[in-house]
Batch of 4 targets.
Target 1
Amino acid sequence: MSLVFLVGVDCSDCSNRALDYAAKRAAVKGARLVIAHVIEWSPFTFSTPQENEERHKRREEELQRAHSEIVDPLVARLLEQGLEVEGMVRHGHAAETLMQIANEIEATNIVIGRKGGSRFKAQLFGSVASALAQISDRPVTVVP
Amino acid sequence: MNKKSAVFTALATCMFSLPAWAQSGIDQKINDAVKPASDWVAGIIFSSFPMFGVQFPFVLVWLIVAATIFTFYFKFINFRAFRHGFELVRGDYNDPTAAGEVTHFQALATALSGTVGLGNIAGVAVAVSLGGPGATFWMILAGLLGMSSKFTECTLGVKYRNEYADGTVSGGPMYYLTKGLAERGFARLGKLLAVLFAVFCIGGSFGGGNMFQANQSFSQLVNVTGGEASWLADKGWLFGIVVAFAVGLVIIGGIRSIARVTSKVVPFMGILYVLAGLIIIGMNYTQIPAAFVAIFDGAFSPEGISGGVIGVLFQGFKRAAFSNEAGIGSAAIAHSAVQTKRPVTEGFVALYEPFVDTVVICTITALVIIITGTWDPNVDPGAGVQLTSTAFESAFSWFPYVLTVAVVLFAYSTMISWSYYGLKCWTFLFGESRAVDTSYKLLFLVFVVLGSSMQLGSVIDFSDAMIFAMAFPNILGLYFLLPVVKRELNEYWDDLKAGRLQKFN
């Protein structure tokens, strides 16, 4: 059975450690890597008709920007190291969407970084890391 | 950036000169000047024929007959698809790969924020006052039938929308009338109906979707700050400028954050309004049976209402139509940006619009007014908001303040929605360009100031007439396109029953 590591990334700078960790493990184990970024989005928000009209266009722009500014540079860096890597950008609730992707690609492991946010903020808004740990049905590695 | 600030300066100059006219009694002059034209147009649109001894406006018959025909033609789609519509709104069928696009929920919420407004608060109070409690019954019936009209127009709105190369989407009656009727071999008629619709829609966007909203929210604001003695009483122009500025920030300045905040606060105010209404009804639960008896008795054997049953029916139907806009065509514009491969799905979702607007919210207002006994047959039709305010005040003395905030926000969101509807029609007629775009938006803002600073009774009549006039070309076109909707519906319904549709959640 081939190993697949899913790495959730927030931004290109702040996810370096999680990425390095995953890359190192992947190199040792011969695993495939999938680098995913989730654009925070909910199907139940309220918007103006003008926003709805442009939504499709904005979505394309958001996907493109996330690819070019966050995911693609990271993928390129790991490809240079000779790893098997793929990038992915989705809209949705961060933890839930990462789970969905994990199911789709049959990830054996999920690796994510932790934002250096305060406890207070995490209490108030919840953190992706803790939400993912709650809902995940496979090992989750949180890299501080 | 310079261009933008130049526009704002021009705008500000323009708006600051308006009040000067208002002060010099020019509102009276404008009123007198447009009155003959306005009366003429309103006279045609609301031209009535005698029915059982009452003058019954043709446009209402037009709306209600269409809603009834659609209900039968689609075999009670308003009840049949009610559950499936809910599943769609809930997102059961949302394709995860389309995450980030406009969902059914978002399209519905956007359309609702355009319709839930003063019609639900002010209009209902007028209907119950003039038509007695029985008007509620006919209002609910009109709301239920109106669901079928919305189903039809919103399905078509999505089916014939324009998807532009840059990724934006827009739709509405102007497009389904032109493209849909052309498909059926009536290209010239379709074009004519589309142009008529666009003209009326622009009129409606200045009137019912703008001046009426500004006027009524100002009236409520004056009312809570002390009525005649209020410092604000003669400062409608000031209110108008503030509102126009706030609207301008969003529609010209493109300040999305304001729109975003409003779009979050408005549903909250709506829920608060419904809850307050339910609490008042609950506090007087012993009177609920009596209220329903009054509604049924009043619907079929009213006493002391001019025109008897037909008079009551007229009030109920009129307010329902004004509030939920079913058959008017405006909602088809708002619904058309949804992401779906099957246009008919948005039709199912649109069923909820008249339901929430009329069957739920309007009925709550009506019940509160009936239970608290605040309705008054001698009410001035312009004082609708004040009546509802008094009804809520009798239970919670502080509620008029909350209501004022709600009214102003509802008016604001309705204006933003209608400015969009009007703009879509304006660009349909005059083409897409920045100048065309901005000219409409500036005009729209001028009407905000006019609406709140002047007592232009006849202009408001005119704008009501314009909104209802939209129903003529729209519904006529709908009759031609019914088979198209039926085909879409049948194909989808077969797939649904056969389990060929993928559920994702």
Note: The radius of gyration of chain A is 16 Å.
Target 2
Amino acid sequence: MNESVQLPDDAMLSVRGITKAFGSNSVLKGIDMDIAKGSVVALIGGNGAGKSTPVKIIMGIYQADEGDVFLDGKATKLGKPAASLAAGIYLVPQEPMLFPNMTVEENVLMGFMQKSSDLHKRLADLLNHLGWKMDLNRKAATLSIAEQQLVELLRGLMRDARLLILDEPTSSLTFNEVESLFAIVEDLKKKGISIIYITHRLTEVFQIADQVLIMRDGVITLDGPVSNFTREMLVAGLLPPNAVIHRDQCENKPVDYSSCKPALEIDRLSGYGFCDVSLKVYPGEVLGLAGVVGAGRTELATTVFGRDAVKGGKVYIDGKDVTGFSTRRMLDSGLNYVAEDRFLNGIFRKSDVAANTTAANLDNMSKFFINFREERRITDQFIKAFRTKVTGRDQIIGSLSGGNQQKVVIARSLSTNPKVLILDEPTRGIDAAARGDVYTIIEQLKAQGLAILLISSDMEEIVELSDRAVTMFCGHINQEFAKCDISQDNLMAAAFGVTEGSAKNA
Amino acid sequence: MVNKVKKLFVRWEAFLIIVIVLEFLIFGTLSPKFLNIRRLFSGLNQFIPVCIISLFVTFVMITGGIDIQAGSIVGLTSIMVGVLWHDANLNIFVACAIALIGGALCGALSGFFVAYTGVQPMVVTLGGSFLYSGMALAVSNLSSNAAYQGISDFPEAFRAISKTEVFGAVPMQFVIFFALVVISYIVLHRTNYGRKIFLCGVNPNAAEFSGINTRAVVMSTYMFSGLSASIAGILLTAYLGTAKADMGSEYTLPIITAVVLGGTSNLGGSGGVIGSALAALAVGFLRIGLGLNGLSTQYLDIPVGILLVVTVSLRFAGTNPKLRKLFSRKKRQTVVSKGN
Amino acid sequence: MLKKLLHSREITSIAFIIFMFLGVGAINPAFLSSANIWLCLNSSVVYTVVAVGIALVIITGEIDVSVGATLGITAAVSSTMIRDGQPWFVAIGAALLIGLAIGTINGFGVTVLKVPSIIMTLGINGIVRGLIYVFTNGKWVENIPFDYKNLAQGRLLGSITYFYLGAILLIVAVHLILTRTKRGKYLAAVGDNIGGSTLLGIPVDMTKFAAFALCGVLAAVGGVLYVSRVGFVTPIAGNGYEMKVIAACVLGGISLSGGVGSVIGAGVGAAIMASISRILVFIGFSSDYDDTITGVLLIIIVVSDALIRRRAVEQARRVRLSAKTQHVAAVRKEATVGE
């Protein structure tokens, strides 16, 4: 099956040539990794880089299409979680998956076969040793996120895991809890336990990791000891190879906005997942909103769109106060939103292209009966304008490629004739040709005077399309960029929390 | 043009039509009585209520829900009409109107809970089936007639609703059923409202993002379902000439079977009334045919139950990855993979 | 330990039944006689046993509406065999096997064929109901030997019947298995969080399959007890039992989404359900309102449960999102302090 592979001597776990595709979407294109015993390996990557996938394969949740996994130098098949658990691997998921109606102790000990009194003693000893105070009898549903993550950690520790995979463990922890976690990680290292540490926070990489792996577009682009890298080198590793690096001079003269009225104004808006956000989008411009997953950009957009409650602040469209409007009223006020997750929130998979195009506009087209003529006209108009590849108006959208599906979703968002359009990851998971088409569409919309808020994790895209840009980090706007300052490395750095003011501390 | 004809034949409804034709061939050969039109319609008369309710339970199931209380609403409607006419001395048609409103309200109540509190449709309609059959019994106690007797001797004008025969042989009930098929088809496939029902079933999130009030839409489907159960109750009462509280108690299984067999996926998002109507007729003919060939009525649920389980499992077996692997290992040819 | 008891969902149900009894007693003191109370409890034995079975399925997050039909057919088969002189243990054994077969078929349909449990069990319900008619030819099963019927009357110390005592022991045993053994805990785990269960290597499909199989067996036990208690079997025996025992579970604090509740709650709920009829008689209402009250109770409880759950999920989501925005504030604070 495979020629003898050269593996490093101290590698506890190695993978070679892992590929994985979901449907036609190729997520991993050949991953090689070596995890040394007792080391902390940081795994970083931009959004959509596929960071979670290799660890889920190691954990047996997914099966690789190709490639091999080696434990202590021997090829092993990890077909299901039970196999990985038996091999001493444990994944602490990013979102803790506890049993809400069971106690902490039951959660930690679930799945163990030994005598309960023995296990209880081991658990109590473990807690003592760690110095954690945890009420074993509390129901998991009442725990804070940090406490839930600790419980997940306990599960791994109780299993004498040799390899612990921590998937963004600090994303919901407070500062002190993070310090606590680091102390634990150091302790585990001393015991010879290996750790794969997935994170967005570059600071943490330098604080606790021995080795760093950078994933981009399904492959590992950088691999080496942390001491070999600086922050800038990591940021560069996250960017595509032909990324344009920022030059200090600015050829364009700054645009004077004082005489324009913003089409969309968000004033100190706070909601669930973001805090104190202020921004303006003017007619005929694209405002890029960059940041990593979890920064709060989508939460901002969906809250504005009426999907969640507003905690404070205001939203204005063309000067009219639309704060807290329901989705329907927002649509009628001239704002539309193209959802981030096309599959979950965007397409009506079993319905045809025409139905997908007109879904938001039915009552405007006619009162009671479906206006099929108008539906046909609008659908054809958009199919032509966007060069959507379909066999006909009646093709089921589920059978279209990702790019064409996205075009239909964008068409729908335009069918309500909005003045403001929020695009959330509009080119995620679509092919290059469709991407080009979408960019053309955006340019056309700009020319027509639409105000566009472009949320994207693709820094290249933001650079190419935006007239201005802002970045969000942990729910706050942390930096604003004028046109000449928008560059991939600037955006990437800011998205990872490395801003000029906080370069020392972030 | 050829493509269109081809498409027509590949559809599920075509399959159902073939099934019905087969039933006629098989049962007709086994027992010529089956082909007697009068006999056929007479046998179908008792089943029309199921056919009618299936049309509107289709609406509910397209949104991804389920309704198992319709049978109880049939009985409740029946006894309400009886009691209102017999003991409250209301005009029979006024009594019918009140009963219709009552049925719609019963459906709407469950629909409200499903749409606005997120409770599972199966469970709340289970409670509803209890509640409404209990209420039916309570209503029957308000009458001077004993509950087991039921209420009879309805005016001819009322009974004419079901008993009149149009074109000599076609019972009025069937005409009403046909009219309802047309109406439900138009509503579901030609109105904005009907389109919204589909959208809410295919992807409630995307529907919300499109500004559709999914909760109102979902609730309304249960209301229509309840209304259809009322209509069925009135028709049945008129046909049998008796109002009884326990009418319709055995309808739940055939209704769900008809809807599922008719091509509506219980996951929601696809289906249609034509399919449900054809499937209901197919099930109806199955029962008549088996009945004529000696199968006693109480056994008729067996083939219906088997039909339900087999249909759904075949549909799902197609999506179970383990079973797929089992079959694909045998077929070693390359399969063209679909995009996305 | 006492604290845990006081906070459990079961305590609400127990409190409910106590208050219910006291309330009825206030209207009609005759209700609170010990003879009557024992009558209420003893008469709930069939509901109790079947409720325990269905509780297993509900705890894993599924549903089974064929238990009434299973009860009916096992009652019909075992009573016919006893009437015709077969040894009792053969008849009972046959009944249990039938229950196991039905439960196994349900489990197979749900876990392998991936048919949703409501539809699978609805279909099986129809089939089995029809099979009862096939087996009995539509006739009642009567003339059951007196000795067999008398079993139901046997009492310990003149109060609790041996049947009900057995039911209580069953509840205790099953409860201990579900809460103390490793495999027993899988049921609640699967119902509580399927993703988490898979991650921990718990065999989700096998667990659900086992729940359905056991449910069928316990429904069969119910059928056997039914024959003894009622004394004869009609072809519609057990009709509607599924609704009653689901209601019993819900009343006993078991959540239909799975993972919550215990078989003790199912037992309490079954007692409540059985008592409703008698209660109606004692406070002067016709027992015709039985179904109405059951329906209302069921709807109230299920809706409240859904609302509470919804609120909890929303809360959790919001807390999670809010936590993400605090890191920056803390870092900034640290930074200013450190400078």
Note: Confidence is low (pLDDT under 50) at residues 333-339 of chain C.
Target 3
Amino acid sequence: MLETDVKTGQYMDPAQRLQRQLELLQATINRAHGTVPFYKNRFMENRAEPSSVESLDSIGRLPFTYRKDLAEHYPYGLFAVPLRDIVRIHTAPGLGVHPVVSGYTRQDLVIWREIATRALSTAGLGASDILQICLDPGLANWGRDYKDAAEALGASVIPLTSLSMEKQRMILADYKTSVLSTTPTFAVQLMNTLLASGVNPNELALRTLVLAGEPLTPETRQALEEGLHLTAWSHYGLSEVPGPGLAFECEEHHGLHLSEDHFLAEIVDPASGTPVPEGEEGELTLTTLTTRAFPLIRFRTGDRMRLIPEPCPCGRTLRRVQWLPGRLDDTVLIRGVKVHQDQILSHMSRVLSLVPRHFRFRPVRGETASGLEVWLGVDNDVFSDEVKILEGRVQAVSAALSQELGVPVSVRLKETTQMGPENQKWMPEAL
Amino acid sequence: MAEQISVFLENKAGRLAEMARILADASINIRALSLADTSDFGVLRLIVNDPEKARTVLKDNGFTVRRTEVAAVELEDRPGGLLAVLDLMDDAGVNIEYMYAYASPRGGRAVMIFRFDPMEKGLEVIEKAGLPLMEGTDLQAW
């Protein structure tokens, strides 16, 4: 049974919403404390009593949860319900060896679909639309959520497929796609491919872009809307707990409305953890209010945001955030997928059967393609007299990383003296 | 067997020259050389007059160097000289990883550098065929 109607939840009186959030927060904290040993221990270590959260402000008494905590309790350590109540298990790339595994009860799925449906229908998606989903395997969970939501709206869905740019372009033109869901980076590259092949945007049925995975900068939005003669809508979501549409743009296109009927949002100073004054930028921290299987308490997303304090002309009382570029944890966004250095290193070590001493990483964003470039320094451990062995290493590492991260990875062998400063493992993005 | 040194090089302008300069400055004489290249990198294989010194000086300059044992086989310097060896290896099921010629200053002698797989079996075949195998010192002396 739904605890709230998602549509009216958007327009709920703010005071009423705060009350509801407090009630749901207390219930969530008690449940997490009672059923998830990780939270129970965390609270104990920080001398935080669940019953001490008597107001929304006092949530500051509770400790934070970090991405590495999620991966450490692989696979089912953070589930708050018995496995038999879980109807779907999602896997998202973690920060190291283990991925992050999240679970959903039947009710959770209904809620998530409602959230995504709300975001999509706000973007104008309806039964007469043909939605094409172009997301990397690393964002496969979002692809499924968008598909389910769009189907619920009666739209025709061309679901997630890992096709070449050429094939995506062909489908877009031939299948009369009216709505495309992808990342801002991919949208730009697809646009470049389309225009380069001489396609007139007015001949396309495409009228809406739903962009997720990365912040949409004003410049990129303008380039896409002018280049393709359509409207772009920005969505925000978490990859660990799908999914998309957790925050979504309305017709004002000024900030993203947070699904405050399902999440409690804080903007905190990343260094100190204290909430920043309203309107200032900081790290988005989320607490789930209605999620049953996988509650998150004060989860530090690593995403840079600021609250937009003014009410939105659209009438929705869900507060808006401005999603800012740059990350606040040590991860880098590659085609919407968060990638951490430790993750890359652990996979490389596994494949090579040795821990590489010299390595660099670089996101690569080109006109028509992007991904990750890994430089592997050839020292005596990595070197072989035979070219085929060296090439084999390159192949093995790039295949493994491409698969684990879900984005294209290319590997280059470098002389150890030609790699740039030792302390700069992440090189600036190559264009 | 003879000692070959292998050097990893990026396929970038100037790396090969840099390496050659370092060897020249250390008075190292290159006797035979083979460059196996891909689009990104190359493995340079060298027979030099002083492999130990060459290794040291290259390593000191940041190059990654390996030592590999290879067979320097004196072939009959006539058409079919090389073919004879290749046929022997084929029949014995020995793979040739790579090979390159040695610039012999003495007329009438053709020397080929081989890396066999497996190496021991390849050497057995050469010895059984009665082909002269040059030792490292012989190569360096030339």
Note: The helical segments of chain B are 15-25, 51-60, 81-92, 119-129, 136-141.
Target 4
Amino acid sequence: MIDPDSLDAILREEWKAPEPTAAFEQRMTSAYRSAVRPSVWWRFWKFRVSVPAPVLVAAMLTIFALFFWLRPAAAPAVSPDTSSVVTRLNASGFQPLPNGHTRVIPAMEIQK
Amino acid sequence: MTQSDLVRDVRRGDEHAFLAIYHRHCSPVFQFAWRLTGSQSEAEDVTQECFLAMVNGAAFDPDRGTLRTYLFGIARNLVLRRLRISGREAEEPAEAVAPVDMLGDLLAAERSELVARAVASLPMLQREAIVLFTFEQLSLDEIAKITAIDAGAVKSRLHRARESLRAALAPLLFRDPERRCL
């Protein structure tokens, strides 16, 4: 009886498959590119722009400068006016004296 | 990133995702196709169609197996279709494996050629079973998923393939003292 492992070993050892040719990957990539049609959104999402660093820095500085230059001026801070304090009083039933004169009445006289 | 995510990106047009899958699975798929067709150009055609089918064909479902079994399943169907079109071979033939003139072959051909001929003489369905099991080292369940049959049928095909190969390669096996197992 033959050991199945020896059969497998002979098969693996003696029947080696080749690899794809070197040009096959290029062929596959071309075929994939022509077969696939990515959506507009996907192409937009995958869109990349390469910008030199000095150009990027200059663009960022320009944007910051425009931002600070064009923003509206802040309104001046208003401090609360403490010079005139208005106190609301209940003046119902108030009647001014007819002659406008004031008279001092001692407290003892009021009690009487 | 899971295999499903990669395949989803491939179908959306992400070339990096495509190349990631290609570099991982191209060689096994190609070698599988080569062992079934016996032709470099046909194996390359099958491999190309297989990877393009991943883009435009049936969606990959991780619940039904790995990406590897998915690709092998596509490649297997493509090979069978090609063989049917060319009229070379389709279903299992009723007759047994063609006898091999062992003595003449041993004298005239290399051992590898002899083994290749012995495997090539197997019926297609047995050949794919032995290739997937022995060379790609897939499990019975994985082969069953690829070939769309149950694992018992795979086991049966493997058994018949082994019997045929043992008969065809017996002199070769017995001739090698290191592998003799009597």
Note: The interface with chain B takes residues 1-4, 6-12, 14-21, 24-25, 27-29, 31-33, 35-39, 42-43, 46 of chain A (CB under 8 Å).
